[in-house]
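Thread: Newbie trying to understand structure tokens

Hi all, I'm a second-year student working on a class project, and my supervisor (Dr. K.) asked me to get a predicted structure for one chain before our next meeting. I've only ever worked with sequences, so writing a 3D structure as a token string is new to me. If someone could post the tokens and maybe explain what I'm looking at, I'd be very grateful. Here's the chain:
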Amino acid sequence: MRITRTVVAGRRRRAAVLATTGLTIPALLLTGCSSDSDTSGSTGPDANGNITLTVADFGQFGYKEAGLFAKYHELHPNITVKEDVTADEKIYYPKLLQQLNSGSGLADVQGIEVGRIKEITDTKADSFVDLGKVIDVGDWVSWKAKQATAPSGAVIGAGTDIGPMSLCYNTDLFKKAGLPTDRAEVAKKVAGGWEDYLKLGEEYKKKAPAGTYFMDSASAMFNAVVSSNAKQYYDESGKPVYKESSSVQQGWNLAAEVASKKLSQGLAQFDTNTWVPALRKGTIATVACPAWMAGQISANAGEGNKGKWDITTAPGATAANWGGSFLAVPKSGKNVEEAGKLVKWLTAPEQQAAVFKAIGVFPSNKGAYDLPDVKNAKLPYFNDAPIGQIYADEAKSIPEAVLGPKDGVIKDTISTQITNMEQRGTSPDKAWKAATDAIDKAIG
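---
Reply by user tm_fold:
Sure, no problem. This is what the structure looks like when written as tokens:
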């Protein structure tokens, strides 16, 4: 994704196969192992003018998998790119803040997750190069560029991927429950929004195969509901408004309804002891599905479930965005100019299309959408779902969200309490109080 890289099982397994222009490739696996963990910050050119550019990121950005670092070296023989990957973004980010505060140890290029970008633009923008002078921000979907724009107007991050929302559903379970399996028909059933999605869940429950559930997680649905709205956890002034936010209230009420009607299996997504076995056993009928989720489902559901899944558009008229990241260039680097050139090249349409082809994360650069490897992309695992078309169309309807510095903290805390409603039977009132008390303590 690129998204918050959550550690999951199966990262060494082959995932779904993405068919683009007659070729097959492995789709997304969110976690990545450290590839060049000896990277220790930016260093200047050697005596012969050779440069080693260091890229620090988290999870799996897909550059090595797409062969881009090797290709850049071919284009620039005096430049070698080394990547330092931290598997878990929750470990990566505190280290980045520590390095920014100390002014040492930073790589030439640093990855920043979308849930952190607001905090960085508000408090650390002066530590990064204004990439608005290097890249053409108009090439990106508009809301992506604005996410990385500081109050001063400086654009401190070039967009890598985005996570346009779709709906993944198990056609085998839908058929057994008497529901339509054609993706266009399923889209019609949920066209009115997430409320329609729950109505479909109630239909499913009436004839559901024993031991199966309509969705994996109410907290995942909550995140999709909130993410499909412009106003989420903060207002334009930077004030936390999650307690009054209509999107949060809608998502919470729907999640409480899911829990009370037992429409979900109440699983923590990516949990290797519960979520992964559920996918493999085929007990989940639907999953709120940002672009990167298809790789998770195919990798963990396994070959035995190939062809039993499909993908359609997300409920409602506006899509959600779940995930995405940026590449930034610290001013303290010894190779600032060359680092900027590398970032511009890595986030250009052709390179973003290559990453999509390699690992399935969807481009934020609009120029990639008409390239064959994106436009014609299909997922055989999901009945040849035309994901290039689906995700590009969804990306056009994603609202320009107001981000806050602690979006991730708020979302994760609320998600924990939604899981408590599902798994422990905690009442909505008690769960909401526990969530708000914890959030207020965490964000001050």
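A couple of things are worth pointing out once you decode it. The first strand starts at residue 17 and ends at 20. Residues 1-17, 20-38 have pLDDT under 50 and may be disordered. Feel free to ask follow-ups in this thread.
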